[in-house]
Specification:
The structure is a single chain. By secondary structure, this protein is an all-alpha fold. The chain has two domains: 1-65; 68-171. It has seven helices and no strands. It has helices at residues 7-10, 13-30, 40-64, 69-98, 104-116, 120-126, 141-169. Helix 4 runs antiparallel to helix 5 (104-116).
Length: 171
């Protein structure tokens, strides 16, 4: 009798090690130490996320023949939303004491609004400040927005491709 693999059996130490290197690159880059290309850590995160999510979805498709979008989105929400909400609310609260009410607080509030909908990347792009050096404590949420947009659309694409494959194979 086969049993369902445990979470530990899916653990990939090599991927976690790569994730650790990516964190280190980004942290060092943001400290101001001369580390040309340290921002590549964000790209590494994107690749790791794509790999892990694809692996998870393909495993589900192989086991069940489909993807439960409801379950997938529920897991993503439970994993990401509490931390993001805490960071945004905490930043808004602290900005009352740390930032000028004449522009800086409004900027953070606008970024918080966009970040709440995982659209910070579009917000910064439309502000012509995607890579601007102006201080904004929520600027880093642009990368989370990109990742969440991937989480929203990729499972739907994979599900559609799976249905197309089934349709073609049934001919």
């Amino acid at each position: 009798m086969q049993t369902k693999p445990t979470q530990a059996e899916y653990f990939r130490g090599d991927i976690q090690g790569l994730r650790g290197i990516a964190v280190l690159l980004v942290v060092i880059y943001h400290t101001g130490v001369a580390l040309p290309g340290g921002y590549i850590g964000v790209d590494i995160f994107f690749v790791i996320s794509g790999f892990v999510i694809t692996q998870l979805l393909l495993r589900e498709t192989s086991a069940t023949g489909t993807i439960s979008l409801k379950s997938f989105y529920e897991r993503r929400i439970k994993r990401i939303l509490p931390a993001v909400a805490f960071a945004i609310i905490g930043t808004l609260f602290l900005s009352i004491f740390a930032l000028s009410p004449f522009g800086e607080q409004q900027q953070v509030a606008q970024t918080a609004r966009a970040s709440s909908f995982f659209a910070a990347n579009f917000y910064f792009y439309l502000q012509d400040s995607y890579w601007a050096l102006a201080e904004n404590p929520l600027r880093h949420l642009w990368s989370l927005a990109v990742e969440e947009q991937f989480y929203i659309f990729f499972p739907v694409l994979l599900l559609a491709l799976n249905k197309l494959k089934i349709h073609i194979n049934s001919r």
